[in-house]
Design a protein that fits this description.
4 helices, single chain, alpha/beta
């Protein structure tokens, strides 16, 4: 089963795909929402994401949750992107808490793939903890 782990940072959706537990190094590593106030940019973001899901035959998507308030609260744009991701008609989307990911990481030895970029680590952990 191909799954996609997502970490939302600023206006970027950082992507990692696993087939069972095997990391797949894809050309597309992130999709950016250029201007969240421009309808064409939002449509482009959605279309790019749907194309990514189709081309890579993704069956499930897991998003690392962000705090809604406090010092580490996610920005408004990330919540808008999350909503757009959840609206996709192609596969199921689940939100994974930071505590669940952290707990998994403490209980398991994680070997990050060599080809994984540093900025993809949280997306990888999100997917790997659910694989």
């Amino acid at each position: 089963m191909k799954i996609c782990g997502i970490d939302l940072k600023a206006n970027n959706m950082i992507l990692v795909v696993l087939d069972n537990t095997k990391f797949i190094d894809l050309k597309t590593k992130k999709i950016t929402l250029e201007n969240d106030e421009n309808q064409n940019d939002i449509r482009s973001f959605c279309n790019d994401f749907l194309l990514f899901l189709e081309q890579n035959e993704i069956e499930r998507v897991f998003i690392k949750k962000r705090a809604k308030k406090g010092n580490f609260a996610g920005g408004a744009v990330t919540f808008k992107m999350e909503g757009l991701i959840q609206l996709n008609p192609l596969c199921e989307v689940e939100l994974i808490s930071c505590q669940s990911i952290s707990s998994f990481e403490k209980k398991n030895h994680i070997d990050f793939p060599e080809s994984l970029k540093k900025y993809q680590e949280q997306a990888f952990l999100t997917a790997f903890s659910m694989s």
